[in-house]
Amino acid sequence: MKGASILITRKIPEAGLEVLRASGADLTILQEDEQQGVPRTLLLDGVRNCDVVLSLLTESLDREVLSVNPRLAGVATMAVGFNNIDVAAATDLGVPVTNTPGVLTQSTADLTWALILAVARRLPEAHNYMAGGLYRIWGPNLFLGADVSPGGSGQRKVLGVIGYGRIGQEVAKRAIGFDMDVLAYDPFYQDGVEASPHARWAELKDLLQTSDFVTLHPLLTPETHHLIGMEQLRMMKPTSYLINTSRGPVVDERELVRALSEGWIAGAGLDVFEDEPQMAPGLAELPNAVLLPHIASASRDTRGMMANIAATNALAHLRREPAPNVVNPEVYEADAYRERMRGAD
Fold first, then answer.
1. Which of 48, 125, 166, 276 is catalytic?
2. How do residues 205-226 score in pLDDT, each as one tens digit?
3. Catalytic: 174?
4. Residues 56-88: pLDDT tens digits?
5. Which residue in 122, 174, 217, 247 is the catalytic one?
6. Residue 294 catalytic?
7. All structural domains of the chain
8. Active-site annotation holder among 156, 294, 319, 320
9. Handedness of CA 260, 265, 270, 276 (dihedral sign)
10. Closest CA relative to residue 145, chosen from 136, 157, 134, 137
11. What is the rounded distance in angstroms from the CA atom of residue 229 to the CA atom of residue 240?
12. Annotated catalytic, 342?
């Protein structure tokens, strides 16, 4: 692959870079600093002069970006979600797009449970209290939280899972150890929910009204944008908690701030935000919100495997081969793709 070029928008883990270096392709990394995004002009210039783009979810690859290079052979994103890429435009232009599915399922399910436990038992508040030197004496009312397992009352808690794909199923499976009842709602996978040994089907309204913990795992689509808004938050119990490790815009964040401030629900654990890295006004000041900087897949093993898969996808694009994790497979049958490949040759 000498002479071929791969544009990496921001530095990825070494496991992926090793795969790319071994190919002999020329690599360009636009941004080495993990705390900095890629300026739009730099992104456009980079895409204009490469054969394949390996991007992260932080870059917007819209029609303008995808159109600047007639020889662009493909886009490989190091993420499961791809709502930052205009896939319809990519297909129209003949550009295959790939993602990294499956590999982060376990890590995300684990972090979902970390948020459930952290917000229910008020762990960040307790940590700050202890680290701040405020602890003087044990007290029977100090940082009272909520049980996740039946606890002293013997009452089984209800976990509501919205979106019952790979991650939702793993979250439900982990609830077994906490002796929870699990409800699940997924309008695209009702048969799968009904066949699951770990959950039973519930309509969205029933799930919200019944659950002690509601955890979100749907894809971000026009139908799931603001899936949880004022009406849905009002349906939840005042003792319940909302967890989101999917995509920020699934929740109307301003209404969530209101719900947390006015006691419609007891708390929330969020790893994603509607306008990352910004948060809705007032959210950061709420003691009943546990807030994380999008780290659901942030284990060394998982991020390394994601980088490896993204690199493998990028090399398939570079070889003009059908990629193993393509999200728009119909592109390979399109005239635009054939014309693009002829132009690249």
1. 276
2. 999 999 999 999 999 999 999 9
3. no
4. 999 999 999 999 999 999 999 999 989 899 999
5. 247
6. yes
7. 5-102+300-344 (3.40.50.720), 105-291 (3.40.50.720)
8. 294
9. negative
10. 157
11. 15
12. no
